[in-house]
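Changelog-adjacent note: as of this version, every example in the card shows the full chain rather than a window. The one below runs 93 residues end to end.
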Amino acid sequence: MPHQPFRDELAGRRRTTLFLFYLAALLSVTAISFVAKIPSSRTLLFALGVTSASAAIFFLLRFLRTNDEREQQTNYHALTASCNASVCILSPG
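Full-length structure tokens:
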């Protein structure tokens, strides 16, 4: 069996969510900036800008939640390692 490097299962989801956040924010900024330049499509562009800004907020909150999950996993592993180290050090030898 070939050696597989350790892969964080949340890393792909964090990366995708962050990419979608940037994409939605860029679309929102672009749509809002075109509102002044193309007055005939003002309503459509404004609706697109607000919708994509809402999507950007959603993706940002999702990204922060996945980072919180990662931090909880890291804290759990650190606590487990320190508990095991304490048991090994304090055990009569």
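Structural remarks: The two ends are 38 Å apart (CA to CA).
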